[in-house]
Design a protein that fits this description.
Blueprint: H1 3-17, H2 22-29, H3 33-41, H4 49-59, H5 63-76, H6 88-91
Length: 94
């Protein structure tokens, strides 16, 4: 698993841990939902550090923690299966 996929998985995992939808995270972070969806879907090949920092603030984690979690997942090979996906329920803007 590459780092980008691991990052997507960790963002989704942190949302689940905090019982946040992607829409709620986007709103809390001040990041457009479309940008967050593109990162999760792997369409954003190089998300900017300011965007990642904003997402971390919205999740209540440090950028170092997010990167460490994603790096550990990438190095471990992660869970086999399809690329993480969002659905309309996870993306709602409650």
């Amino acid at each position: 698993m590459d780092f980008r996929e691991a990052l997507s998985r960790e963002l989704l995992a942190l949302c689940r841990e905090r019982k946040m939808s992607l829409g709620q995270l986007a709103q809390a972070a001040g990041v457009p939902l479309s940008t967050l969806k593109n990162i999760i879907a792997g369409q954003s090949r190089n998300p900017g550090i300011l965007t990642l920092a904003a997402l971390c603030r919205g999740l209540g984690v440090s950028p170092a923690e997010l990167i460490a979690r994603a790096q550990a997942l990438a190095e471990a090979g992660g869970i086999s299966g399809e690329r993480p996906q969002y659905n309309k329920a996870s993306a709602k803007e409650d």
